[in-house]
Give the backbone structure.
Amino acid sequence: VVEVGGGIREYTDRGRPVLDPYPLGAMCDGAHGTPLIPWPNRLADGRYSFDGTDLQVALTEPSKGNAIHGLLRWLPWQVAARDPARVVMTATVFPLQGYPFHLEVEVAYQLGEEGLVVTTRAVNRGDRACPYGCGQHPYLSAGPGTLDDCDLQLAAATRIVTDPERQLPTGTEAVAGTPFDFNARRRVSGLQIDSAYTDLERDDAGRAWARLFRPDGTCAELWVGPGYPIIQIYTGDTLAPARRRLGLGAEPMSCPPNAFQTGEGVIRLEPGRSVTTQWGARFDNAHDTISDSAAAGDEEAAFAALRRSGGMPAEALTRGSPMPWRTSREGGAAGLSRGAPASAASRPAGWVSPWAVRGRWRDGRRRTAAWRSC
């Protein structure tokens, strides 16, 4: 976690990158990991009206005539609390031209059983209501390859369409059947994406998930709580050449692009009131669960974990599996069955059935060791 911008520079799990980092001592590029407050994404011409007053903020994306990603990206934040598993960063927006409001912001980064949990809280310390929106700009790491080697799964019904010149909203479209449909897991290769997704499908805890399946068999996940109705997906194609497509921008947003102008999703924060939002990132632990469950002979737990993971890649499977399951890139009940190996026609290129390599691990102890190393 860094002082300038208060964002998260790097997050690893057992030495594996969950979020794509940038070098220590380097200036943050592409808003990597940065809180986006008091608005995320773009604001056309830096202009908006609030309570009958026209306001103008500085243009921070001058080439496109926009103000982008709020007011706190380049300000120093303070450490309010710190322990081995938690750090809390704070910053203040004092009244300034274009945003004459007093806002206190706190972002808490917590490591635990769920991985990384990020809680953002803003309080209006002024004497009048203020407009408020928030977001953050983490990049899920592509691991040892690039995004072209990865699959994405994001259950969302709608994409916000933007113009190509200024990337401002022009409408929405249903994603079903379009190149931007990731409701079913599929490859990112060949697509350049910088789009906000909404109408997100949520689990019983109210969380929506973006999952990046990587060529080494791991899956980096990001979830957003109910306070974030939008996830912006960005494949990093406008970053410096050496930095492109190494991570997937998966940006929680409380409101859409240009919200301060349209009013859509903007929170009216009254004096003394606060608003809290939450998102998180982690490795899907399904592969570790598969390893441990297979070693313990718990077929049901391993089967459930394999189904949740959407299958395992050839590299992981060729280390050995005693389980008679078929795997597929799509995963789910339709992509898993017991009792017979997958045929070549039903199996994507580069993916194999555990049965295809079972004979390589005749000794049970060698097989267990192989699972544990996955």
Observations:
- Helices lie at 259-262, 286-296, 299-309, 314-317, 355-358, 364-372.
- The CA atoms of residues 310 and 331 lie 4 Å apart.
- The first strand starts at residue 11 and ends at 13.
